[in-house]
Amino acid sequence: MDVKDYSMGLVKYPFWFSEERKIIELLAYGMSLTDIKKKNQAENLFGAPSALRRDQIFNHLSSRISAMEGPFVSLFLKEDVAGQRLLVLASIMNWDRMFFEFVYYVVREKMITGLHELTEKDFGMFFRDVQTKSERAAKWQEKTLRRMAGAYRTFLSEGGLLEGAAGKKTIRKVFVDPDIEEYLDGNGMTAIRKALEGER
């Protein structure tokens, strides 16, 4: 995982499960990312409302996928939907440093200690800690942090790690397929595996 500065860029991007899966399917079919980019520009593969959003979706997802080393495409396609959603979540964690750290230091720790409720206080403490470590983050406003907390909840819910109503979100201990474990460990993402599984 590349070390990057903290960024709020993730608030602009949904989980985009079906969109990421579509690109992966085309890669497995033998197309390159350049081919898929051209196809998207010609056919608007994701039904985006504008050319700008069409290109934004592709550029973000191609960055996520490109950051995943090794046999990511073949592994993704042989997993069931739950496994695929975990791999999309892993690709987001691998792409975004701050989201990875939130899952690793907050969600994983709660799984280890058995405190499964994810609260506003958890988000507040995490973001305050980030703001003490980064000059860029120190300038973020409260409303932006609330948007980021909402995005994190959505990613975790769609990835299968969070469940419950809006007022009370509970962290789920998920089953990670041994093939996914082997892939993550073998491609420098052991910390991501431990975050997903709640391991020391």
Give the SSE map.
Layout: H1 17-29, H2 33-43, H3 51-66, H4 72-78, H5 81-95, H6 97-113, E1 117-118, H7 120-133, H8 135-138, H9 142-159, E2 162-163, E3 169-171, H10 178-186, H11 190-197
Antiparallel strand pairs: 1-3, 2-3
Helix pairs in contact: 1-3, 1-4, 2-3, 5-6, 5-9, 6-11, 10-11
What this model shows, in words?
The protein folds into two domains: 13-66, no CATH class; 92-197. The model has no long low-confidence stretch (mean pLDDT 94). It contains eleven helices and three strands. α5 (81-95) crosses α6 (97-113), α5 (81-95) runs antiparallel to α9 (142-159) and α10 (178-186) packs antiparallel against α11 (190-197). It is mainly α and 200 residues long. The protein has a three-stranded antiparallel beta sheet with strand order 1-3-2. It is 66% helix and 4% strand.
Total DSSP E strands:
3
Order of helices and strands: HHHHHHEHHHEEHH
| Number of separate helices | 11
Q: Low-confidence runs (pLDDT<50, min 5 residues)?
A: none
Distance between the termini: 18 Å
The coarse silhouette is globular
Q: What structural class is derived from the secondary structure elements?
A: mainly alpha
Largest sheet: 3 strands, antiparallel
Could you tell me the strand content as a percent range?
under 5%
Oligomer: single chain
Q: From the alpha carbons, calculate the radius of gyration and give it in angstroms.
A: 17 Å
For the largest sheet, list the strands in their spatial order: 1-3-2
Please give the share of residues in helix: 55-70%
| Integer count of domains | 2
Mean pLDDT: 94
